């Protein structure tokens, strides 16, 4: 009688934990997170704010030397970026953003819309307000967000090994204190200096595939102890010691 009771209680516990695990799984797939939820499948020809939100998340997959426009228009370049993102994470690579793609993005983002491995805090070691630079605080933060998604793609391409950042947004005063040039992209919030355990050349070389128009690394003046990635209107890559 006692053993039967124990067995009975054990089976209830097991059933309960299976049910609980099931709930957790369902909750993870049915509900996105505190950041952003897509409500329709997006494909070539789609346009709107939801397309632009997608473009930000796949901006690290534009193809070598390219930069994805964040224009809210789902054209061939966006489809190709989605396909590369899908391939990178082992999803069906059809270039259409449906639930499997969105669920992967939900799993990769925090509630503040940053990718899981990067934070606003590390993108701004200068001040907490994002003010005092060359653009508004909102623009500087928005630029930093796009950069974080590009860095998430870079990190994933390099085997998900940690990438450390040493400098991001700088106000004019932080920039002069750091000895940065007066036209530094750090003033716009769209430059990041990378360090960490990966070699600076490995970072500089791979960054060419992830949407950075500006890459400065070993061999470029004052860039032997980090690799700098940023954005600008035309391409400028220089890391002579890495063959770039
Ligand atoms: Zn820099």
Unreliable residue stretches: 8-31
Helix and strand succession?
HHHHHHEHEHEEE
Quaternary structure state of the chains depicted:
single chain
Averaged pLDDT: 90
Spatial shape: globular
Strand order of the largest sheet: 1-2-4-3-5
- Per DSSP E runs of 2 or more residues, the count of β-strands stands at 5
CATH topology of the largest domain: Muramoyl-pentapeptide Carboxypeptidase, domain 2
Distance between the first and last residues' Cα: 77 Å
The level-1 CATH class of the largest domain:
Alpha Beta
Tell me the number of structural domains.
Answer: 2
Largest sheet entry = 5 strands, mixed
Compute the number of helices. 8
Q: Percent helix among the residues?
A: 40-55%
Bound molecules: zinc ion
Structural class: alpha+beta
Overall radius of gyration = 22 Å
Describe it for me?
The structure is a single chain. By secondary structure, the chain is an alpha+beta fold. It folds into 2 domains: 33-113, PGBD-like superfamily/PGBD (Muramoyl-pentapeptide Carboxypeptidase, domain 1), CATH 1.10.101; 120-242, Muramoyl-pentapeptide Carboxypeptidase, domain 2, CATH 3.30.1380.10. 41% of the residues lie in helices and 7% in strands. A 5-stranded mixed beta sheet has the order 1-2-4-3-5, with helices on one face. It is globular. The model is unreliable at 8-31 (pLDDT under 50). It binds zinc ion. The site of zinc ion (ZN) has 5 residues, from loops. This is Peptidase M15. Residues 1-21 form the signal peptide. Residues 117-230 form the Peptidase M15A C-terminal domain. Keywords: Signal.
């Amino acid at each position: 009688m006692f053993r039967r009771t124990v067995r009975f209680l054990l089976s209830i516990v097991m059933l309960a934990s299976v049910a609980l695990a099931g709930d957790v799984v369902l909750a993870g797939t049915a509900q996105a997170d505190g950041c952003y939820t897509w409500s329709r499948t997006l494909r070539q020809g789609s346009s709107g704010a939801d397309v632009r939100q997608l473009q930000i998340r796949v901006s690290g997959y534009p193809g070598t030397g390219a930069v994805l426009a964040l224009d809210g228009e789902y054209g061939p370049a966006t489809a190709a970026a989605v396909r590369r993102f899908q391939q990178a994470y082992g999803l069906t690579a059809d270039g259409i953003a449906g639930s499997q793609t969105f669920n992967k993005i939900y799993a990769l983002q925090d509630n503040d819309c940053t990718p899981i491995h990067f934070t606003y805090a590390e993108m701004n070691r200068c001040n907490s307000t994002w003010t005092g630079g060359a653009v508004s605080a909102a623009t500087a933060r928005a630029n930093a967000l796009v950069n974080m998604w590009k860095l998430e793609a870079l990190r994933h391409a390099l085997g998900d090994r940690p990438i450390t950042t040493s400098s991001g947004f700088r106000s004019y005063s932080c920039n002069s204190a750091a000895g940065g040039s007066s036209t530094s992209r750090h003033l716009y919030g769209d430059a990041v200096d990378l360090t960490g355990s990966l070699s600076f050349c490995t970072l500089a070389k791979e960054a060419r595939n992830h949407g950075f128009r500006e890459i400065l690394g070993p061999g470029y003046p004052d860039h032997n102890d980090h690799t700098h990635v940023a954005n600008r209107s035309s391409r400028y890559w220089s890391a002579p010691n890495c063959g770039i």
